[in-house]
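Task 17 of the worksheet. Students: predict the tertiary structure of the chain below and write it out as C-alpha coordinates. Keep your answer in the requested format; marks are given for formatting as well as content.
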Amino acid sequence: MRHWLRLLSAAALASCAAEGPHPEARTASTAPPEPRVAPASDAARAAAIPLATLAGEPTDLARVARGKVTLVALWATWCDACAEELGALHRLDARTREGGDVVVVAIAVGEERGAVESFVRHHDVPATQLVDEDFRLADALDQRRVPATLILDRRGRIVFRGGALDGAALAALRAAIADPPRAP
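Model answer:
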Protein backbone atom coordinates (compact mmCIF):
# COMPACT_ATOMS: atom_id res chain seq x y z
CA MET A 1 0.00 0.00 0.00
CA ARG A 2 2.82 2.42 0.90
CA HIS A 3 4.45 1.79 -2.50
CA TRP A 4 1.22 2.73 -4.32
CA LEU A 5 0.80 5.89 -2.26
CA ARG A 6 4.33 6.92 -3.15
CA LEU A 7 3.71 6.22 -6.84
CA LEU A 8 0.52 8.26 -6.83
CA SER A 9 2.13 11.15 -4.98
CA ALA A 10 5.08 11.16 -7.37
CA ALA A 11 2.78 11.16 -10.36
CA ALA A 12 0.79 14.04 -8.89
CA LEU A 13 3.93 16.07 -8.32
CA ALA A 14 5.59 15.26 -11.62
CA SER A 15 6.17 18.01 -14.12
CA CYS A 16 5.82 15.98 -17.29
CA ALA A 17 3.12 16.65 -19.81
CA ALA A 18 -0.31 15.36 -18.89
CA GLU A 19 -0.83 14.07 -22.42
CA GLY A 20 1.39 11.01 -21.75
CA PRO A 21 0.13 7.52 -20.97
CA HIS A 22 -0.60 8.47 -17.34
CA PRO A 23 -3.29 11.16 -17.28
CA GLU A 24 -2.82 11.80 -13.56
CA ALA A 25 0.50 13.53 -14.27
CA ARG A 26 0.33 17.34 -14.13
CA THR A 27 1.34 19.64 -16.91
CA ALA A 28 4.92 20.84 -16.75
CA SER A 29 5.54 24.27 -15.31
CA THR A 30 6.56 26.83 -17.91
CA ALA A 31 9.37 28.08 -15.70
CA PRO A 32 12.18 25.56 -15.18
CA PRO A 33 13.49 25.18 -11.65
CA GLU A 34 16.40 27.44 -10.82
CA PRO A 35 19.71 25.56 -11.04
CA ARG A 36 21.54 25.49 -7.74
CA VAL A 37 24.52 23.89 -6.10
CA ALA A 38 23.46 21.29 -3.58
CA PRO A 39 24.98 21.07 -0.11
CA ALA A 40 27.75 18.49 0.32
CA SER A 41 25.47 16.47 2.60
CA ASP A 42 23.06 15.93 -0.33
CA ALA A 43 25.86 14.50 -2.42
CA ALA A 44 27.03 12.19 0.36
CA ARG A 45 23.50 10.87 0.85
CA ALA A 46 22.98 10.42 -2.88
CA ALA A 47 26.21 8.51 -3.37
CA ALA A 48 25.20 5.87 -0.82
CA ILE A 49 21.57 5.30 -1.88
CA PRO A 50 21.04 1.71 -3.04
CA LEU A 51 20.03 1.52 -6.70
CA ALA A 52 19.74 -1.38 -9.14
CA THR A 53 21.07 -2.03 -12.61
CA LEU A 54 18.66 -3.24 -15.29
CA ALA A 55 20.04 -6.73 -14.61
CA GLY A 56 18.88 -6.38 -11.00
CA GLU A 57 22.35 -6.08 -9.52
CA PRO A 58 22.72 -3.70 -6.58
CA THR A 59 24.85 -0.60 -7.08
CA ASP A 60 24.98 3.04 -6.07
CA LEU A 61 25.88 6.33 -7.65
CA ALA A 62 29.40 6.37 -6.18
CA ARG A 63 30.23 3.06 -7.87
CA VAL A 64 28.88 4.22 -11.20
CA ALA A 65 30.57 7.64 -11.07
CA ARG A 66 33.96 6.20 -10.05
CA GLY A 67 35.46 9.64 -9.41
CA LYS A 68 34.43 11.02 -12.80
CA VAL A 69 32.30 14.01 -13.72
CA THR A 70 28.77 12.59 -13.85
CA LEU A 71 25.57 13.77 -15.49
CA VAL A 72 22.58 12.16 -13.78
CA ALA A 73 19.20 12.29 -15.52
CA LEU A 74 16.21 11.36 -13.36
CA TRP A 75 13.34 10.15 -15.51
CA ALA A 76 10.24 7.93 -15.78
CA THR A 77 8.89 5.80 -18.62
CA TRP A 78 5.52 7.58 -18.62
CA CYS A 79 7.09 11.05 -18.91
CA ASP A 80 6.97 12.34 -22.51
CA ALA A 81 9.60 15.03 -21.86
CA CYS A 82 11.87 12.36 -20.37
CA ALA A 83 11.45 10.09 -23.40
CA GLU A 84 12.29 12.99 -25.72
CA GLU A 85 15.42 13.70 -23.69
CA LEU A 86 16.77 10.14 -23.95
CA GLY A 87 18.04 10.70 -27.49
CA ALA A 88 20.06 13.73 -26.39
CA LEU A 89 21.42 11.76 -23.44
CA HIS A 90 22.47 8.98 -25.81
CA ARG A 91 24.31 11.45 -28.06
CA LEU A 92 25.97 13.11 -25.08
CA ASP A 93 27.00 9.71 -23.72
CA ALA A 94 28.52 8.75 -27.09
CA ARG A 95 30.50 12.02 -27.28
CA THR A 96 31.79 11.95 -23.72
CA ARG A 97 32.50 8.22 -23.48
CA GLU A 98 35.57 8.55 -25.72
CA GLY A 99 37.33 10.91 -23.30
CA GLY A 100 36.69 8.57 -20.39
CA ASP A 101 36.31 11.37 -17.85
CA VAL A 102 32.52 11.74 -17.95
CA VAL A 103 29.75 9.32 -17.04
CA VAL A 104 26.17 9.82 -18.26
CA VAL A 105 23.66 7.86 -16.22
CA ALA A 106 19.88 7.81 -16.46
CA ILE A 107 18.01 6.79 -13.31
CA ALA A 108 14.35 5.79 -13.62
CA VAL A 109 12.53 6.73 -10.43
CA GLY A 110 9.46 5.14 -8.91
CA GLU A 111 9.11 2.30 -11.38
CA GLU A 112 9.73 -1.41 -11.30
CA ARG A 113 12.96 -2.59 -12.87
CA GLY A 114 11.20 -4.89 -15.35
CA ALA A 115 9.08 -2.06 -16.75
CA VAL A 116 12.16 0.14 -17.16
CA GLU A 117 14.12 -2.69 -18.76
CA SER A 118 11.32 -3.31 -21.27
CA PHE A 119 11.07 0.41 -22.11
CA VAL A 120 14.84 0.76 -22.57
CA ARG A 121 15.03 -2.32 -24.76
CA HIS A 122 12.05 -1.21 -26.88
CA HIS A 123 13.46 2.31 -27.34
CA ASP A 124 17.08 1.17 -27.81
CA VAL A 125 18.49 3.42 -25.08
CA PRO A 126 22.18 2.50 -24.60
CA ALA A 127 23.32 4.98 -21.91
CA THR A 128 23.93 3.59 -18.42
CA GLN A 129 20.54 2.92 -16.83
CA LEU A 130 19.76 2.48 -13.15
CA VAL A 131 16.50 2.10 -11.26
CA ASP A 132 15.34 3.81 -8.06
CA GLU A 133 12.14 1.80 -7.54
CA ASP A 134 11.27 3.20 -4.13
CA PHE A 135 12.21 6.88 -4.66
CA ARG A 136 15.11 6.59 -2.21
CA LEU A 137 17.44 8.74 -4.29
CA ALA A 138 14.70 11.17 -5.29
CA ASP A 139 13.63 11.51 -1.64
CA ALA A 140 17.18 12.00 -0.37
CA LEU A 141 17.63 14.82 -2.87
CA ASP A 142 14.12 16.22 -2.29
CA GLN A 143 13.64 15.81 -6.03
CA ARG A 144 9.93 15.73 -6.88
CA ARG A 145 9.97 16.37 -10.64
CA VAL A 146 11.10 14.56 -13.73
CA PRO A 147 12.94 15.12 -15.90
CA ALA A 148 15.68 16.39 -13.64
CA THR A 149 19.38 16.84 -14.28
CA LEU A 150 22.20 16.68 -11.74
CA ILE A 151 25.88 17.28 -12.41
CA LEU A 152 28.39 15.74 -9.99
CA ASP A 153 32.01 16.82 -9.97
CA ARG A 154 34.93 14.38 -9.66
CA ARG A 155 34.67 14.49 -5.86
CA GLY A 156 31.01 13.46 -6.02
CA ARG A 157 29.63 16.88 -5.09
CA ILE A 158 26.41 17.95 -6.76
CA VAL A 159 27.41 21.15 -8.57
CA PHE A 160 24.20 21.60 -10.55
CA ARG A 161 20.52 20.76 -10.11
CA GLY A 162 17.98 21.60 -12.78
CA GLY A 163 15.06 20.35 -14.82
CA ALA A 164 15.34 18.87 -18.28
CA LEU A 165 18.74 18.72 -19.96
CA ASP A 166 19.34 22.23 -21.29
CA GLY A 167 22.03 24.81 -21.98
CA ALA A 168 22.51 25.57 -18.28
CA ALA A 169 23.08 21.88 -17.51
CA LEU A 170 25.52 21.53 -20.39
CA ALA A 171 27.39 24.66 -19.23
CA ALA A 172 27.64 23.18 -15.72
CA LEU A 173 28.88 19.90 -17.22
CA ARG A 174 31.56 21.73 -19.23
CA ALA A 175 32.62 23.68 -16.13
CA ALA A 176 32.91 20.49 -14.10
CA ILE A 177 34.98 18.86 -16.84
CA ALA A 178 37.25 21.92 -17.07
CA ASP A 179 37.87 21.89 -13.31
CA PRO A 180 41.14 19.93 -13.04
CA PRO A 181 41.23 16.79 -10.90
CA ARG A 182 42.67 17.40 -7.46
CA ALA A 183 45.19 15.22 -5.71
CA PRO A 184 43.71 13.24 -2.80
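Marker's comment: The two ends are 46 Å apart (CA to CA). Residues 80-97 form the longest helix (18 residues).
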